[in-house]
Amino acid sequence: MIAMKGIVKVYKTGAIELKALDGVQVSVARGEFVAIIGASGSGKTTLMQLMGCLDRPTAGEYWLDGEDVLGCSEEQLAVVRNRKIGFVFQKFNLLPRFDTLTNVEIPLIYQGVDRRVSRGQAARLLEMVGLGDRMKHRPGELSGGQQQRVAIARALVADPPLILADEPTGNLDTRSGKEIMELFKALHNSGRTLVLITHDPGIARQAGRIIQIKDGKVIAGEHF
Length: 224
Known about the structure:
- This is Peptide ABC transporter ATP-binding protein.
- One of its GO terms (molecular function) is ATP hydrolysis activity.
- Keywords: ATP-binding, Nucleotide-binding, Transport.
- The strands form two sheets. A six-stranded mixed β-sheet has the order 6-7-8-3-9-10, with helices on both faces.
- Helix 3 packs across helix 4 (about 115-130), helix 3 (about 100-110) packs parallel to helix 5 and helix 4 packs across helix 5.
- The protein is about 35% helix and about 30% strand.
- It has helices at about 45-50, 75-85, 100-110, 115-130, 145-155, 175-190, 200-205; strands at about 1-15, 15-30, 35, 60-65, 65-70, 85-90, 160-165, 195-200, 210-215, 215-220.
- It starts with a strand and ends with a strand.
- By secondary structure, it is of the alpha/beta class.
- Strand 9 (about 210-215) and strand 10 form a beta hairpin.
């Protein structure tokens, strides 16, 4: 599903250069559940942004689902993100003015899917994550754990082959965090490919494999 080789990412501010990633190699097989762990500033979030085609590396190679995505235009990358990747973020990134049903169906709206179809699919996903009775609620009327469930439903609605989750339990209490991890494990058991970014060893240990990153380098857990 993911094959990254020799990935380098350098940020420049005037004459100052910061190498966030330094020759990273990462592979994730289809159907794997992988946790990428590292301290703040280790490069793990930068790595996720590159995996999610939200940014481009300074150097290196990246194949996603068999496609050389670094050869894609920005418009082509937008299509890749919409069809192949579901994102779950620490801050949920829900639209506060819209109800949960609309928030979940947004990726399908961008794809031009008929609204009757998109709303039916969104409703099915909200039922799946246990929020069938909250479809007309806005994000501000939900708990943090419920908002994250909405975000997971949104990530799944277009049926992407890959789910990327960046600190998905970081803003949640212990009980809600446990519920979200149980949901992720259920998604993995159903055949989804999951990559989870975390700084929490307890969260990371619930994945099938842990990749550890430090100072922009993978120091443990990778294999090619």
